[in-house]
Amino acid sequence: MLKVKSRESCLFDEISLGEVMLRLDPGDMRVRTARTFTAWEGGGEYNVARGLRRCFGLRTAVVTAFADNDVGRLVEDFILQGGVDTRHILWRPYDGLGRSVRNGLNFTERGFGARGAAGTSDRGHTAASQLKKGDIDWESIFGKDGARWLHTGGIYAGLSETTADVIEEAMIAAKKHGTIISYDLNYRPSLWKNFGGQKKAQEVNRRLVRYVDVLIGNEEDFTACLGFHVEGVDENLSALDTTNFKKMISAVTAEFSHLSVVATTLRTVKSASINDWAAVCWSSENGGTFHESIVRENLEIYDRVGGGDSFASGLVYGLMEKGDAGLAVDYGAAHGALAMTTPGDTSMASLAEVEHLMKGGSARVAR
């Protein structure tokens, strides 16, 4: 299915390309009324690297850029605490005001009950958004040091006019050196709002998917990012009915026949605090095989932000280390479920906890 390079042949198991922001969390308050915030780091692509490092014990690194000031150094400190290698971070001179370059901020409310989670990003003109082709020595990363896996996604692709080109450059180099590529479509309307809208998002994502081995999305991503409209799916999109999602994935793989794995998370939002949660994965083995996780009904949510990224890291772990798409979707769904029980973008789960949940383990007190 996937020919993953050996651990011994590479310096890193996985490398993520994307922006890492400072997340400011008002806790139980609203952003508009808060007087104190808890600081975290977070970013869709980076969260996968951190999950693979801290939960699954793999060697990971992040490729990104920061303005060289105390905010950038704070985010770097969070990354170091997460155990993700920082050698490929580019530092840009700070002008004192942020006129030319700055670091991204993300104010995020967790939501509760009838009030959904909400995010307010402040990330214009950031160092990561200004990266362009030629800034990163991809040949050294994939050819000299070696990486078994590259992960990136649609959030970074929509950040500026140049970031999709950076992704494509990375993918071409990764392909040349036999590195597996995963891509999370991760559609964010706010990113594309003043950047060509959904039409532009589809143009960019369809261009990049040509290089991808493992494609990841959520319920709406395949339509929003790739333009797939399957009869009977759009108007009957139920996360508990996997039939429609299988139709969607079949349509995707019929057009993008080079894909080895396509996976989607499934979520029914009953309230911000109660969701049904599951996942479906298609692999190209045996002419195309579907695998489904169990459906976790009435899952209690503490902080849903980052749940999809934790699904992605569990999926990557299962594919990379176990070579089994069925196990991979279970690792992803369990890790995502656990990640949503704690605050912040990133996972606080352990591998033992993930495997305990996969086996049907309960939430009884462990002593």
Helix share, percent: 25-40%
What amount of the residues lies in strands? 15-25%
Instruction: Please state the overall shape, judged from the principal axes of the Cα atoms.
Output: globular
Count of extended strands? 14
Q: How many domain modules?
A: 1
CATH superfamily: Ribokinase
User: Briefly, what CATH class?
Assistant: Alpha Beta
CATH topology category name: UDP-N-acetylmuramoyl-L-alanine:D-glutamate ligase
Radius of gyration: 19 Å
Largest sheet: 10 strands, mixed
Q: What would you note in describing this structure?
A:
- This protein has 367 residues and is of the alpha/beta class.
- The chain has one domain (7-113, 121-358): Ribokinase (UDP-N-acetylmuramoyl-L-alanine:D-glutamate ligase), CATH 3.40.1190.20.
- Helix content is 34%, strand content 22%.
- It contains twelve helices and 14 strands.
- It has helices at 44-54, 70-81, 138-145, 154-157, 163-176, 189-192, 197-209, 221-226, 242-255, 307-322, 325-339, 351-358; strands at 12-17, 21-25, 38-42, 60-67, 89-92, 105-109, 118-122, 147-153, 180-184, 214-217, 261-269, 274-283, 289-292, 296-300.
- Strands 1, 4, 5, 8, 9, 10, 11, 12, 13 and 14 form a ten-stranded mixed beta sheet that branches. A four-stranded mixed beta sheet has the order 3-2-6-7.
- Strand 6 and strand 7 form a beta hairpin.
- Helix 11 (325-339) packs across helix 12 (351-358).
- The protein is globular.
- The protein starts with 11 loop residues before the first strand and ends in a 9-residue tail after the last helix.
- The model has no long low-confidence stretch (mean pLDDT 93).
